[in-house]
Amino acid sequence: MIMEYINSLFDINIQEPTAVTVGKFDGIHKGHNLLTNDIISKGSKGYKSCLVTFKNSVREAIYNDDSPSLITNKERMFMLESNGLDYMVECPFDDRLMQTDATSFIELLVNNLNMKYMVVGSDFTFGYKGAGDVELLKELSERYDFELRVIDKIKRNNRDISSTYIREELREGHIDVVNEMLGYEYFVWGEVVHGAHLGTKIGIPTINIMPERNKLVPKFGVYVTTIDFDGRIYHGVTNVGTKPSVSEKNIVGIETHILDYNGDLYGKYVRVTFQSFLRPEMKFNSVEELKNQMKRDKLKAKSYFNK
To answer: Quick check: pTM over 0.70?
Structure first.
């Protein structure tokens, strides 16, 4: 079954019994995967898996915080469908939803989604101003006759794994820690666009992609990466930043040299996956100095993949 996408919680009526989880899912980290894997596993009991999340950032809606997210809506949809989810309800986090009280919110899930099973994290809150908590949810599960499971948060160094924690580590360039908490390698997906072609001129051709506005990129610097396109995975070395040695435009981009590849990728969509941090972004005094450093970066990347 192809995942069915639904863009409202109010105007739907799913006939099949569902196993449901609800959350921001703004990173799809290990904790999120516990919830999604749990509802998907309920297919053995005849339940369809249904994830309820939000089209716009909760941080932006409540606190006017439009800071970038770990994952874009397109990336989230792709990942969840790849995992085998049956239904994804991506509702606008607007006044109508925000003003729905806790009990009414659960009634929506029961009546509109035919919810028979629900799994949430131990810190789950819901309803107007987050008034509903796990204790209320236990009472409502008995009232509305659905099975409830509460899963404890996964911790790292005695701290709950969360999207906030992961964003902090990503901004510091701790890509190994980020990947550990995500349970997969962090990536940026985008279309290959034309750059200044400096890499080609100095014998180290690169591809450029522009991340979406709301996509959080890692700390500026150079990374060992893999590049995924046309069903194949290649090794590479990637610069994240504004390329201060060759540009004064201060535009953030993702520039990658793919090892042992010389094809034309303009207009194609590629996924750049971050494996290891090599060094911070630097400004060089000459193109020759930049070229020599890029050669050293290539050798380090090759050594990383050959270890």
So the answer is: yes
